[in-house]
Every structure is written in C-alpha cells, then in structure tokens.
Amino acid sequence: MRKVYRIKLSAGERGSLEKLSRSQTAAAHKVTKARALLLCDESRKGPGLKDAEVISKTGIKPATLERLRRRCCEVGPLDALERKAQENRARKVTGEVEARLVALACSEPPEGCARWTLQLLADKLVELEVVEYITDETVRRQLKKMNLSLG
To answer: pTM (2 decimals)?
Structure first.
C-alpha cells in the first residue's frame, strides 16, 4: 500500500519524541506512538522503516499507524500523541425531561395497559414532543438514577 502521509521530523521534534519514548512516567500509549513516529521518520536522522517493520517493532495495529501518520501531518507529531477530545455530547435528559418523565411514570397508565413500561414511557415522551428521540434504555437509566420503580 502506498504511503499517503509521510513523516519528516525536525531535530527538535525528534529530540522531544526520543525523550518521551525513554520516559518512565509517560502513558504507555504515548510512548508506543512516539516510538512508532521515530521509526517512521523519513528525515536524514530517521530510519524511515516500512509500515510492516514499524508494526512488528511497536506492536500497534496497521489502522492505528495510519491514523497516527495522518494526525501527525495534520496537527504535528507532539499533538498527534494526545488523544482526541471527545465531542461534547448534549445530554438527552435535561431537568425538564426528567421532570416530565417522573410525572408520566407516577401518572395513570394509558387505557388498555395495567402499568407503564419503559417503551411506553419512551414513546409517550416522543409523542408529547418532550424529546425528539429517546430509547427505553435511557428511560430505564434515568428512573434508576432517581430510584423510581415501575413495578
């Protein structure tokens, strides 16, 4: 497979990565990735090994190496070692949704049903346009957090 992202480290970057790869206190994933970047380095001081050799020496997966190369080219070698920040996921169950859920769970069940089920509660919250979409598992977790029982 043809390399799309080639790594050529400057002397400063190489020194930082070498220091990190010898570190006893750094996280293992950072040390492994630093070693992989040093082995991939195609500059004058770097060995410029093929991917198969880098994989055998570091033990990382081919897809991980490819992502590491890409990230190194996009954000730089030192930032590529850091884990990407998770996107801020908006909470589906806010205080308002929680209040409506409690009110529903404590109310009389719909006609033809002996009691509320998790799926009935989830469907009713969507029907009342409290949320756009919610699963019965999310309803279960919320009820459990509030120590409410449907039984």
So the answer is: 0.61
